[in-house]
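Now for one record.
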Amino acid sequence: MELLSQSMKGEMEACKRRAREAGLVFQDNTLEYVVTNQDMLELSPRVMIPTLYDYWAFDVEVHQNRWMYDIHPHNPYETVINTRPPISFYNQDNADWFNVMIFYHVLGHIDFFQNNTFFRRTWDDDFCGQALADKRLINRIRAEHGDQKRWVDYLIEFARAIDNLVGYHQELKEGDEAEQPEIFGAFSEKADFYFGQFLKELYEAKRVKLEFYYEEIERYNRCVRTFGKKQGELAFFEDNTFRSKLPEFNDVFKKRKEKGEKPKPKDIFEHLAERSDSLNQEENRWMKEVLQVIRRTSLYFQPQMRTKIANEGWASLWHQTLFMADERMSTHEVDFARVDSAVTFDPRLGINPYAAGKHLFEFIEALARKGRLSPEYRLLKNIDTRKKYDRDCGQAAGRKALFEARRHFDDYLLVNFLSDEDFQDFVDEHKLFIAGVRPSRERWDRAEIYIKSRSGKEYRRLLNRMLYHPPYVDFSGAKAKDGELYLDHVYEGRSLFRKYIGPVLIGLEFLWGRQVKLETTEYEETQPKNWWEWRSSQYQPEYKKIRVLYACDKRKITRTILDQTTTDSYGG
């Protein structure tokens, strides 16, 4: 692995200038490396983060990648990671003209990383540096354990099994409330206690009237308008009239602070770290440090997993737009067409995220140019009127909508932003469809693929099914008994993978130190009344939705159907 040559670095800087002129926004400093195919095989298990902590599963994946590469040589042309500064890797087999095209693609990614709101908790972080510190921490813990260092890997394995349950949205909310509390109506701790609890208790005790509450709100707002947020609040509580009416407030607030009410855990990791008797034993405190490393790493990758279609679509849109206008493309038009078509093609079977995201961004831009994002257009029902509607708002309006979409959309919002009518137009414009498979009507030993549906609603449902959607598990303990860990999976239309439930619960039992239970929803096949119905070629299985309780006690897993009395057991 080596840095890009000075001549190619100059080409990259030229691409940056063109990208900024087109409207992309990103920091100036970047790092580019040329890597071999061997480097790619070794970095890919670490998600291209060279400083990521060591873990035995990474080594296994490296050997697997080498074996697959020997059979079918293949590697990505480039990879870019969201660090400060951004680091991108380029395959040594890339031609110079090809790297120029890829530079535009990489700059599209960097622009997305540094401006999309779902990445806002990573904008000030150097994750490579943090990963290196975490790696050194885990290596130190391994060294301290000596012959027992395998327990560090066991813990990493248990933690990685639940790392999709991190409180990503809770972290975003907490950061936003801290940076811009006025937008969320958030007060300081003192003001929040005064208006939220103290005055309420006085009102319930009939010491003050409701009018006094409204008068205090108006006085607070008046102080803030006059003196600003911080000084206004100080003036509000230091007012002599206030002190004479409620002299006990400061003492009550001080006692409340000394009591120290802890905030609720944002995810299962924080819940385990704070409330697990096993983890809080002196000899096991190192486990909390390892759990924090896994949690931090998962939070870093969460926005990337939630923006696969949007991120790749955005980068594909700009490599195509910018490279086609670049004179360095000259004499490489056919080569570009071949490579670009392989990246952004619309498959007849399945969905290409590069193409889907690119098409959606372009469609939104076209709607804005024609004024079709207006309420007036959305109220139209006549098909012919909708087709002819064009307010000619200009390219500036289209670009504004395009960059606003880049800033505010993840995959879910991008896929579901358009109305049903607009999305049907999108499907029709790109000739998209859902394919089905059925037995061939001509050859008994073959199947045939046919167009099952061209419905926009069905196609959007297919896109939604492929989006990253971690389960929502309530760990508050409302149903817990005798110190057990009770996980309540809130069913959102997707069941858990049953084969993983047992191993995950065993790992959680180790971390919690006591019995662990999981309540979830599954589907069970309804058996036909007669055996010959099952043997019939026309038989279609039916399923019923059931609520199930898994329990793990001393590495033994039991499964109980909550609405029946049947219990199945199997070894842990």
Summary: Residues 177-259 form one domain. The chain is about 55% helix and 10% strand.
